């Protein structure tokens, strides 16, 4: 946040930079290639929800921000975004036939998935499954 304060009597402007920080628990990242996918998803200590999407996909434009919002309070689940147009190898590997496609990973293995634009309850259910499994395995 940048605030500019003016003192007309002195003909001066003062610029004061004010920073505000909030704790962002969920890590969200864009996967650029198969190597990065392996590093950030397959080898992750945290469960990861992978959102296969496309820029031209209208349902994806709704689902991606909704998932990020619902994951925000979670400290233990990461969100990876994969653009299907840029990652044909990953699309083939995970047999993505339609977008949006969402896969939930734990310890490098797909443990749940859904395809299409779903309601918040379905996303929360997926998050709950990943959270419960983490708690029960601890």
Automatic annotation (TrEMBL):
One of its GO terms (cellular component) is mitochondrion. Gene3D superfamilies: Glutaredoxin (3.40.30.10). CDD domains: TRX_family (cd02947). Residues 12-132 form the Thioredoxin domain. GO terms for biological process: cell redox homeostasis. InterPro entries: Thioredoxin-like_sf (IPR036249), Thioredoxin_domain (IPR013766). SUPFAM superfamilies: Thioredoxin-like (SSF52833). Pfam families: Thioredoxin (PF00085). Belongs to the thioredoxin family. This is Putative thioredoxin-like protein. It comes from Psorophora albipes.
């Amino acid at each position: 946040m940048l605030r500019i304060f003016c003192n007309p009597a002195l003909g001066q402007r003062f610029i004061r930079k004010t920073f505000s920080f909030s704790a962002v628990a969920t890590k969200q990242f864009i996967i650029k290639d198969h190597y990065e996918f392996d590093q950030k998803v397959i080898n992750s200590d945290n469960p990861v929800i992978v959102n296969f999407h496309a820029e031209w996909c209208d349902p994806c434009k709704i689902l991606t921000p909704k998932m990020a919002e619902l994951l925000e309070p979670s400290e233990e689940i990461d969100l990876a975004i994969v653009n299907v147009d840029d990652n044909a190898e990953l699309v083939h590997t995970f047999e993505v036939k339609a977008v949006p496609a969402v896969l939930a990973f734990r310890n490098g293995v797909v443990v749940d998935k859904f395809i299409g634009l779903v309601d918040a309850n379905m996303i929360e259910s997926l998050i709950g499954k990943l959270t419960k499994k983490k708690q029960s395995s601890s």
